[in-house]
Amino acid sequence: MLKYIPATDRHHAAPVSWLSSYFLFSFADYYDPNNIHFGPLRVFNDDSIAPNSGFPQHPHSEMEIVTIVLDGEVTHEDTMGNQTTIPKGEVQRMTAGTGLAHSEFNRTDKPLHIYQLWFMPNQKGLAPSYEQKDLDLLDSKNELMPIVSGQKVLEDVVYMNSNSTIYWANLKEDKEIEFKTFPIRNTFIYVKEGTIYVNGTELGPNDQARMTDEHVVQIRAKKDAQFILIDLPSSEANY
């Protein structure tokens, strides 16, 4: 079963002048009891941050936090002692675990565009940890490129404590990708740009597809497209 969610159904938040954020799930001042999470995927925020602005230090716990930088660069500091810059095309993962605090700033004169995703971890009480990797994800061609995963059969990815995998795809017009899955898994797709057909349903920029009880996900690009696909467990016992 495929649930299509148009871009217009995202919740838009602009709590301060320098931030424009679209929430795909309940977050902050947005609460919908029917849109809390999809499997262990608890948060997916599409954030645009103005130059020379950002989030001051704030705490987290018991979440796997993934940041994907699409444009610009993030300056990151945390209470684990990490002081890093995450440029366009790189991916960061923090295990908040028993607790940490961090800040995220756009220290440049150009806008910053990121996706930030939170996953409920497969176990609680983990020690906080950090990983960052340059994966050249924006240069991949006509394939589902795994970028973050808790499935240890995959190599050269950022590891997270969740039985889930985040894929990125740059799909040229008329090219097709087939993703094989199982009825015990969920599949989530969010389109950055272009137009794709997902099992016959058309998705444009910022549209979502949430799929359950599928065996195969067929994706074809109507126009050159960039999108994220997330493979997720459907049962909490398998998070």
Automatic annotation (TrEMBL):
Quercetin 2,3-dioxygenase C-terminal cupin domain: residues covered: 155-232
- Where does the source fall among the domains of life? Bacteria
Annotated Pirin N-terminal domain ranges read 16-118
CDD domains with a match to the protein in the record: cupin_Yhhw_N
Checking Pfam families in the record gives: Pirin, Pirin_C_2
| SUPFAM superfamilies assigned to the protein according to its UniProt record, in alphabetical order | RmlC-like cupins
Please report which protein family the annotation says this sequence is part of. Answer: Belongs to the pirin family.
Name under which the protein is recorded: Pirin family protein
Q: What is the lineage of its organism?
A: Bacteria, Pseudomonadati, Bacteroidota, Cytophagia, Cytophagales
